[in-house]
Each structure stands twice: as C-alpha cells, then as structure tokens.
Amino acid sequence: MAKLSVNGIEVEVPNGASVIQACEAAGVEIPRFCYHERLSVAGNCRMCLVEVEKAPKPVASCAYPVAEGMKVFTDTPMVRNARRGVMEFLLINHPLDCPICDQGGECDLQDQAVGYGMDGSRYTEEKRAVKDKYVGPLIKTIMTRCIQCTRCVRFAAEVAGTPELGGTNRGENMEIGTYVEKALTSELSGNLIDICPVGALTSRPYAFVSRPWELRKTDSIDVQDATGTATRIDSRGPEVLRILPRVNEAVNEEWMADRGRFSFDGLKRKRLDRPWIRRGGKLTPATWPEAFAAIAAKLDATAPERIGAIAGDLSDAESTLALRDLMRAYGAVHLDCRQDGAAIDATRGDFFRFNSSIAGIDEADAILLIGTDLRRESPVINARVRKRWTQGGVAIAYVGPPTDLTYPAQHLGDTPAAMEGFAEALGAAKRPMIILGRGALARADGAAILAAAWALAKESGALTPEWHGFNLLHLFGGQVGALELGFVQGKTLGAMMGGEVDALWLLGADGFDPARIGSETFVIYQGHHGDRAAARADVILPGAAYTEKDATYVNTEGRAQRAFRAIHPPGEAREDWRILRAFSEGVGKTLPYDTIDAVRAALAVAAPCFAAIDALPAPGCTDTAGPSAEAPLSDSAFVYPLASYHLADQIARASEVMAECASIYGGAAPRLAAE
C-alpha cells in the first residue's frame, strides 16, 4: 500500500493504483472523458490533469501511478488553467448543438464545460464536419460531436469482444468508425451509448423523443433473459420511452443486453387490453364477469385430474404462486413451467441454479460450457466470462455446434460424449466450473445429460463445501421462480399437450407450438400479448407486462429481485395475481391474500429464496448425490435453443426494432419446443 496526500487529505491505496483512483479514495472529484473504471487506460482527453509536487507540468491522473509520499493538488491555478485549455481545445470542433442533441441534459461534456471550462473561445476558424457512420439499427451516430476519447473502441474490443470500431487517419482528420460501413454485431452494443461522454453515439429508437427531465424513472429488472440485470425504466405518461442498466456489481456490473434494452416498443404492440371469449369458433370481446363465468363453468364440470396449468417464461413469482394455489383449490395436480420440455430436476435447488453465482465466474480457473451458446443466451454473463479470460489463468472449452463466444475456447465436439474431453483440465483446477445450457436438457436424453454433467462436476472436485461448480443457465426471468415454487408436478407439458387434460390454464405461456394442444382441450390464456397461444385460447384474460406491475423475479443464480411498476396496464388489463385472486373469490375458492404484501409473505413461506431479497443461497455443496437418469446418453448433436436472439420472447416478437434487427442480423423464426 502507498500513502499519499490529495489536497492535504491523507489516503492509502494499493501499489500500482493511479492518481485518479487515489483522488476518488479521498473523495475528490476529477473530471474525465476517456477514463472509465472498467476499460483500459488511454490518456486521450487530458481533462484529468492534476498538479503533483515537484512535477514540472500538470500530469494526467488516469495514467500516472501513485508513489509513497506523493502530494497531489487538484484545484490550483495551474490545474484550473490547464483544464480550461483542454476544454477549449475539445470544443474547437464540437458543433455546440445541445438544443437538438439527445444527450442534452445528461452529457458529460455539458457538465464539465460548465464546471471547468472558460466563458468564451478564441477560435474563429471554421469547424470541421465528419460524416455520420451507419453502425446498425440501434445506435445513431453524429460523429461531428466525437471527441475521440476511444471509450467505444475499447469497450467493443475489451468488454464486448467484437473489435469492430477503431480510428482512421491521424490528427485533425481522425475519425472513429467501423472501417467498412456495417452494423455492429455485438449483443451488448447499446452500452456504447451509456459510455459515450458526448452525443456522438445515441439511441436510434429514442431519437428526438424526450428530454431526461420529462421522464419518470423506475427501478426494475430485465426479465427477457435470466441474468437479472438491474435496470431503470424511463417513462412518460402511459408509455415506456427507454430502458437503461443500473449498477449491480454482483450481477451485471453496469452492462445490459440489447434485447432487454431496445425491445420496449413491443410493450405497446399486439397488447391484450380486454377479455375475450370464443363464441361460434371466433374470439369476441367480453366483460370480466362473462370471462370468469365461462372459465368457472368449464372447470366446475371438469374432473380435477383433467385440469392442468403451465406457467410462462416471463411470469412473476406472485402470479405463479397464485395460479399454483388456485389449481390446488380445484384439486388439480398437473403443473409445469418447462415450456421447452427441459428435463430439469426440481427436487433440489442446486440441480437447477447457477450455483457458483455470476460473480463466482471471477474465481473460476477452468470453465466448461455444455450445450449453451452463452453469447446469445446471456450476453452479460458471457461478458463476465470474457473478463475472466482477459485476466489469464483460466482454461475454457465448450461442447456444442461451433460458435463465436468472443474469446478463445476449445471446441470439444457437439455431442454429449465430448464432455469427457475436458475432465482432466477440470480435475486439475482449483475452482472448476461447469455451465450447462437449458437447451441441452430439452432433448430425449435431457435427464441423462443433467446426471452426466453433475457426475462430471463431482468427479472433478467442483462440488465441495467451499465451492459449487455446477451451474444451469436459464433463458428467461420467470423460469427459476416457478421452479423454486414447485410448479413441476403431475403430467408434463408434453402430456398435457397430448390431450390428457380437458382444461388448460396458460399463464403467459407462449414458448411452444399451440398446434400441439388437443383440439378438445379448453384453453384459458392469461397474458399481456396476443402471441402464439392467445390465438388458440377459448378465453383470454388480459394481464400486465413486467413494466406494469410490482413483481418479484428470481434470476438464474437463485437471487430474488424486485421490479416496480413504471406504467399502468392498458385498457382493462390487470396484474396477473389480482386476476387470479378475483376469479378465486368469484368461484368460492378465495385465495388467502388480497394485498401484494400478503402475497409476498406467502412467497417467503413457499420457498426460502423469497425471504431475503437480493440474497443468494448458501455457497458450496454439502450433498453431492446427483439427479438420477434411466435412459443413456444419445450420440445426437446439441442444438442451441435460440434460433434468433432478437425474437426470443413475446415482447421482442412484438417489437419493430427487434424485427429490424432480426432482418439485418439474420436468424430463423424462434425455435419451438415441438421442434
């Protein structure tokens, strides 16, 4: 540790730390444009100049290491004049178009020009102009505003792992771009907007929509993958206008995947805003009492063993609990939440959780990916694995079709037998980690693959009281919560599809081909989008999307998280648990809760993970007995579950922005469980 003083304040920082980090430790703000805590140091902008005792000139604090006994001064005449000069140079060619810039009101250049700049400029020559670059349907470029901080270049190369941006020419002629004009291919490209300190990179869907002071900001969770990314929903009136990430070091750091960020326009398209009943073979509008009466008449006339329910991939825990309790009140025992047909063993939590935790990736020294295209199934977790690779000392391999993970990884093969090819490396590691893709279990031999992956983890020493190296990666935010609540019992989804039930309640379940449902089965669809399953329904109950309700979700590692309502549901749509509670009262099977707090108290009783929000299950593995499997492993190749990253869920399928992305980047129609 090195001791130094910053403006007379004594601080102690690790050897090798930079002066800017020491200043932050002392609580002193240092302006910066090119410096970012999660990127390599570039030293481009010189805005972070400070004075160091005995130094002949101001030094760039981001690139200057600390030394024992150093004395740093951040507000002397030398520093003030240096910063004013740097700001004057940065504004020489800047267009100064703040009134029409989408970054206005949250722009680092604006803020620092006010705080550290001059009140005028001595530059009278014509400003240079730079041609705007096309980098895809998500990011709008106004490159005349660019100050060449290279944050975007470093993010693309270091975090996203897609080094497509760079600088061409030199000096006054330098431009940032993609060399050959093309759409960026990263699933994390939206983060370029967040790290750009000026208005050179802004959101194309958000262009000229609003100003930040007009927006209502609400904390939420991205449920369109299972990472549990902390987000902020910005809304105005009845409409969501943008979604941004929040910092959560244990989960997403400060990054967010593109699908959850840009598909919000799907929240206002293809929405269900009133109940519907099928009359004479045609869906017609109805009132809530009429819809409830039609459902009650059918359920009352159906034997309990002929009633089934399926929970969807985006369903919140409160609604899933309410549906489970309603089915129990009817005596129904057929429940399933595995729309993809994955052979998940829900008898123990560590059979279906990401047990090492997302932050635990930083400790792993050998990682095996089985049947998962991690880059597209969870871009943020993939970025964490890439971060671990950049630190060195880790071996990475994968089993599945060849793919680009954005970091070097040994391809062992594409069949289950190839898993053994990495056993020696796992056994030699101190912190071995296996990440099993959920799609790997959606096969005839899924149970055998689950058992084989657990056995491999046990044999390689990945299951100890200090370390749990077995991890199952889920795809969507509602999947783990349903498993925690035991929404897996009785007949499987496949059996219920095959006509073995007469009444089927679908809670936002759209992840399978509805043509599989028996023609005589009475279908109740409760959800927020008129997607696949709604067209097959006999009764439709309009629910609320995740942005329209206070709800609890569980991410892939078993962490319970809260999302809050940003806007109200459209029309007559209501929160899903309230719909179920109202229906239960109408049929004389009243559920034992009528407030959100009462529902959450019941959640805490139903599953331990809901008792503490944002907490993880106990680390380590104390019971190494694995899941059982009767059938042997097959020699068929793995198939990744997401045929199209941009169209993976019902919100994204309703989004025009995601449809444009899918047409540009390719990708077939989303793969259904029947396939």
From TrEMBL:
<dbReference type="GO" id="GO:0016651">
    <property type="term" value="F:oxidoreductase activity, acting on NAD(P)H"/>
</dbReference>
<dbReference type="InterPro" id="IPR000283">
    <property type="entry name" value="NADH_UbQ_OxRdtase_75kDa_su_CS"/>
</dbReference>
<dbReference type="GO" id="GO:0008137">
    <property type="term" value="F:NADH dehydrogenase (ubiquinone) activity"/>
</dbReference>
<dbReference type="GO" id="GO:0048038">
    <property type="term" value="F:quinone binding"/>
</dbReference>
<dbReference type="GO" id="GO:0051537">
    <property type="term" value="F:2 iron, 2 sulfur cluster binding"/>
</dbReference>
<keyword id="KW-0001">2Fe-2S</keyword>
<keyword id="KW-0874">Quinone</keyword>
<dbReference type="InterPro" id="IPR015405">
    <property type="entry name" value="NDUFS1-like_C"/>
</dbReference>
<keyword id="KW-0408">Iron</keyword>
<keyword id="KW-0479">Metal-binding</keyword>
<comment type="function">
    <text>NDH-1 shuttles electrons from NADH, via FMN and iron-sulfur (Fe-S) centers, to quinones in the respiratory chain. Couples the redox reaction to proton translocation (for every two electrons transferred, four hydrogen ions are translocated across the cytoplasmic membrane), and thus conserves the redox energy in a proton gradient.</text>
</comment>
<dbReference type="Pfam" id="PF22151">
    <property type="entry name" value="Fer4_NDSU1"/>
</dbReference>
<dbReference type="InterPro" id="IPR006963">
    <property type="entry name" value="Mopterin_OxRdtase_4Fe-4S_dom"/>
</dbReference>
<feature type="domain" description="2Fe-2S ferredoxin-type">
    <location>
        <begin position="1"/>
        <end position="78"/>
    </location>
</feature>
<feature type="domain" description="4Fe-4S His(Cys)3-ligated-type">
    <location>
        <begin position="78"/>
        <end position="117"/>
    </location>
</feature>
<dbReference type="InterPro" id="IPR006656">
    <property type="entry name" value="Mopterin_OxRdtase"/>
</dbReference>
<dbReference type="Pfam" id="PF09326">
    <property type="entry name" value="NADH_dhqG_C"/>
</dbReference>
<dbReference type="InterPro" id="IPR010228">
    <property type="entry name" value="NADH_UbQ_OxRdtase_Gsu"/>
</dbReference>
<dbReference type="GO" id="GO:0016020">
    <property type="term" value="C:membrane"/>
</dbReference>
<protein>
    <recommendedName>
        <fullName>NADH-quinone oxidoreductase</fullName>
        <ecNumber>7.1.1.-</ecNumber>
    </recommendedName>
</protein>
<dbReference type="GO" id="GO:0046872">
    <property type="term" value="F:metal ion binding"/>
</dbReference>
<keyword id="KW-0004">4Fe-4S</keyword>
<dbReference type="Pfam" id="PF10588">
    <property type="entry name" value="NADH-G_4Fe-4S_3"/>
</dbReference>
<dbReference type="GO" id="GO:0042773">
    <property type="term" value="P:ATP synthesis coupled electron transport"/>
</dbReference>
<feature type="domain" description="4Fe-4S Mo/W bis-MGD-type">
    <location>
        <begin position="215"/>
        <end position="271"/>
    </location>
</feature>
<dbReference type="InterPro" id="IPR019574">
    <property type="entry name" value="NADH_UbQ_OxRdtase_Gsu_4Fe4S-bd"/>
</dbReference>
<dbReference type="InterPro" id="IPR001041">
    <property type="entry name" value="2Fe-2S_ferredoxin-type"/>
</dbReference>
<dbReference type="Pfam" id="PF00384">
    <property type="entry name" value="Molybdopterin"/>
</dbReference>
<dbReference type="Pfam" id="PF22117">
    <property type="entry name" value="Fer4_Nqo3"/>
</dbReference>
<keyword id="KW-0560">Oxidoreductase</keyword>
<keyword id="KW-0520">NAD</keyword>
<dbReference type="GO" id="GO:0051539">
    <property type="term" value="F:4 iron, 4 sulfur cluster binding"/>
</dbReference>
<dbReference type="InterPro" id="IPR036010">
    <property type="entry name" value="2Fe-2S_ferredoxin-like_sf"/>
</dbReference>
<comment type="similarity">
    <text>Belongs to the complex I 75 kDa subunit family.</text>
</comment>
<dbReference type="InterPro" id="IPR050123">
    <property type="entry name" value="Prok_molybdopt-oxidoreductase"/>
</dbReference>
<dbReference type="Pfam" id="PF13510">
    <property type="entry name" value="Fer2_4"/>
</dbReference>
<keyword id="KW-1278">Translocase</keyword>
<dbReference type="InterPro" id="IPR054351">
    <property type="entry name" value="NADH_UbQ_OxRdtase_ferredoxin"/>
</dbReference>
<keyword id="KW-0411">Iron-sulfur</keyword>
